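Write out structure tokens for ubiquitinyl hydrolase 1.
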Amino acid sequence: MTVEQNVLQPSGAAKHQQTFLNQLREITGINDIQVLQQALKDSNGNLELAVAFLTAKNAKVPQQEEATYYQTALPGNDRYISVGSQADTNVIDLTGDDKDDLQRAIALSLEESNRAFRETGITDEEQAISRVLEASIAENKASLKRTHPEVWSDSPNPYDRKRQDDCPVGLKNVGNTCWFSAVIQSLFNLLEFRRLVLNFSAPANAQDLPRNQKEHRNLPFMRELRYLFALLVGSKRKYVDPSRAVEILKDAFKSNDSQQQDVSEFTHKLLDWLEDAFQIKAEEERDGEKPKNPMVELFYGRFLAVGVLEGKKFENTEMFGQYPLQVNGFKDLHECLEAAMIEGEIESLHSENSAKSGQEHWFTELPPVLTFELSRFEFNQALGRPEKIHNKLEFPPILYLDRYMHKNREITRIKRDEIKRLREYLTVLQQRLERYLSYGSGPKRFPLVDVLQYALEFASSKPVCTSPVDDLDASAPSSGTLPAQTTPSTIEQQGPSSSDVPSTSPVQRSVIHKPFTQSRIPPDLPMHPAPRHITEEELSVLEGCLHRWRTEVENDTRDLQESISRIHRTIELMYSDKTMVQVPYRLHAVLVHEGQANAGHYWAYIYDHHQNRWMKYNDISVTKSTWEELERDSFGGYRNASAYCLMYINDKEQYLMQEEFNKETGQILVGMDTLPSDLRDYVKEDNKRFEKELEEWDTELAQKAQQEKLLSQIPRAPAPSPAPVQAGEPEYLEQPSRTDLSKHLKEDSVQAINKALSEQEDRGPEAIMDMVMLTPNMQGIIMAIGKARNVYDRCGPEAGFFKAIKLEYTRLLKLAQEDPPPECDYRLRHAIVYFIQNQAPKKIIERTLLEQFGDHNLSFDERCRNIMKVAQAKLEMIKPDEVNMEEYERWHQDYRNFRETTMFLMVGLEFFQKKSYMEALLYLIYAYQNNKELLSKGPYRGHDEELISHYRRECLLKLNEHAAALFESGDDQEVNNGLIIMNELIVPCLPLLLVDEMEEKDIVAVEDMRNRWCSYLGQEMEPNLQEKLTDFLPKLLDCSTEIKGFNDPPKLPSYSTHELCERYARIMLSLSRTPADGR
């Protein structure tokens, strides 16, 4: 790698060694440079062995840790090289008598490694990385040919792969290469970088260059990268295949492992290769001047390191590309940067005689494209493996870097001192506030304001002169046990019982208070404890003191809270003055990783600077997005997804994102017009091949259609037609048809009801109705008419009608106010119960009741017919403006939806108990969605949401386990069946579980399902299984909450109200008998 020679001249080996030191520091958490260097030497450049050495219990630790930690900052060190200094890392001293045999062997090994580097251009460090990179792009050899074969995972219909209008082109995942897609798309959408790549031309003397592996790798890669960028510009395909560029990567990095490549590591290597390729071209074109490398100009900046080591000051300049930042322990990007810019104790920087050591970093030159690596992995010493850090880290869309510039260091130091002082003061205020909010000396503490209020309430209670147990002792049972008493206060204190298993109650209704019977509280016993003796004078003094103290405490608490808020605001605005917002950087791309340290999936959010919107690039899928979605997936702390790399661009450098213009016409160049002629021809050829695919598909479809037409003309024996299926929606007001009721049945029904009324007056109304198999509505009406027979006989039909309708409404109102067990939902039996519980307008309820009394089927005897005629007359008297018929229809439609939702739930639960999870899932999905819509209108409009959510979630988990077991079998048919289950059932359902962030159990279930499939990434498997897994995983790991379309709702059988209530009661009773751990 080449940089400006008058600033830095590190050797290639030293630079690669520093890269590996940074990686070792990130993986192991060890910051001692000498320990890391020794481990790298002992492992002979093998990164894996170095990690093993550092994590072993007997690892050697140098004693002078503090001195060696800062030795990298001293002049002459390999990392910090003074201006104009030279560092020769190729010289190995083997003459020292103090070296033992091991050290001599290490030195000889390093000398041999450096010799190999000079000959081949590949360092031992690169070879160590290669063992990780090559396997992450392992793929089928057949898919890497020069031609464009159809990969198994592509849709056979080319129209499914056709680009829509000017939608951005995606990149196909060709075997754990989501990291490749994320990085390449981020760079491609940087227009200046795109122009540099597209307009790159190989050096004229390329054939005369030294034939080392490095140069024969970079130039072919640049050629394939140009082709790939050209396809991303002008292809007619929805996505393109990057296999040819990936093949060069695979050939350059050899490994036998199968794991995904690290994004930051790949970005490092990619920029190295591009820099080398452009350097060859730059050196060819220079005319006596020092060549400028556009990659260095675009991605590399410089910072000044100033510090003190044991009282001696130093100052060095260093070049940087991607800037690493630690995430753990910080809440936002500025906190990470502040920590990265200051190492050690910086107080000594401003004093002459201090022996403490520390250093500050100040940017002297920022690159136009500034990339931050977020270190979200750390090595767990106890478990012996890396772990991902899921902490939340916020970052802004516009980042002002003025406070980190060397030219602003004096004002920044003043502001940092002020912030430090404010934070110290803030800590004191927060400690004082905590004493007010958590008052007391015991394990339980309470706000002081509440303590004073409780004391005031106690003192103000009515005094009692007897012991609180006296009355209970007098009335205690002979057994010595006290009767259980439940008061409203104890109920409020206990609260609802919690359980992992949702309640099977359809809704949570307010408690209906009933008169106390056996457990009546003695009238003289106070509800709360009270003083035994207190005089009016004592009470007056005490109340005055408590009131005054409470007011003082409230004022003190408010003052502390306001002071804390003011300090927070002051700190937030510390760098908001005009002088500190002159260096704006706009967020261009966010590379996101979801999963764990050893497995996961990458995608990118990239800002469209011309359309002013965010786009999500997830392999072949390119969709519009929002800042809110980016926050959810990138900040971390919520799911296993979080940002791993941030790319900012200088907002004042317009050329970075500026479109190209035609020099003659001044028109903006778009699409193919932006390509050089050779690439334009290349893309046209590829588009012709794709158009030929479309034509062949159209021809094939036309031939099939012609064959089907000829076959349809051949006469065939007519097949028996199936019996028609009755698929009408269930009627909740169903009445027996008048023609279906014989006179004998009518007489028997009336006689049975009259007999029940005369013989069992004391029995409940439901017991009487169950004696006759009529609908619940008809039963209630006939029973009400029977009870009103005395009024009917004495005062006539109209009086009988009013008496009957009043009795029926009173009965339904009582049912609506009851709190029945889960298996007995009165709403299913009577629409009016549903209306009453949901506070329907009185006019709606009245008209519904009138329609039930005026039904033509109510003609069992003369009394029923006369009351029916009165009801019909009342209906005709209702004026159009008295009842809003649209509102009336809406209420009845809601009730029909409620019954339909009940049937979805009931059938789904029945399938679930039969372990038919695939059938159960669709019913439960529609039950949940319909129920959620109902509950949005009122708490009693639907069923218990947690119950439906629980069984929907359980269905998905069991299907996921079944699909995973099929995949693990290895049999082609079973593997395909398992992936069909995942693609057609589970993946479309995941957004339904993720859309509500409050449903923590659903989110945990989704993570469990994803982790199950991600665990296969590190396992050895057949190549065809690996291909299928890598094609499927991006769909499973997509964090989008966009609801995909589902099939039409499943057919529901037609149930009478009796059948519906009976089956619903049966299934709910079976759930209540299921053990808690079985749910």
